[in-house]
Amino acid sequence: MKVHFDEKADAVYLRLDDSPIIGSEEVSPGVVLDYNEKNDVVGVEILRVKGRIRPESLNQIQLEVVRGQEQP
């Protein structure tokens, strides 16, 4: 998985795998999903990032892994 921030374009792109992109769809204003030939989401682009998050958050990426939790 790769995360790319383009400061000039004010966009973040999250690429989930390297399969060819066959199509794209804007699912909400400024959020675009890229699909492969199996119709799996392989990329997520978020536009106008600086207006969505605090600027200092752009300098760090935090990955949180959530494991399955036991049910009571």
**Which structural class do the helices and strands define?**
mainly beta
Tally of discrete structural domains = 1
Q: Oligomeric form of this entry?
A: single chain
Residue runs with pLDDT of under 50 for 5 or more positions: none
Model description:
0% of the residues lie in helices and 39% in strands. The chain is mainly beta and 72 residues long. The mean pLDDT is 89.
Write the layout of secondary structure elements.
Blueprint: E1 2-6, E2 11-15, E3 23-28, E4 31-35, E5 41-47
Antiparallel strand pairs: 1-2, 2-5, 3-4, 4-5
Pick out its properties:
72 residues, mainly beta, five-stranded antiparallel β-sheet, 5 strands, globular
How would you briefly describe this protein structure?
Helices cover 0% and strands 39% of the residues. The chain has 72 residues and is mainly β.
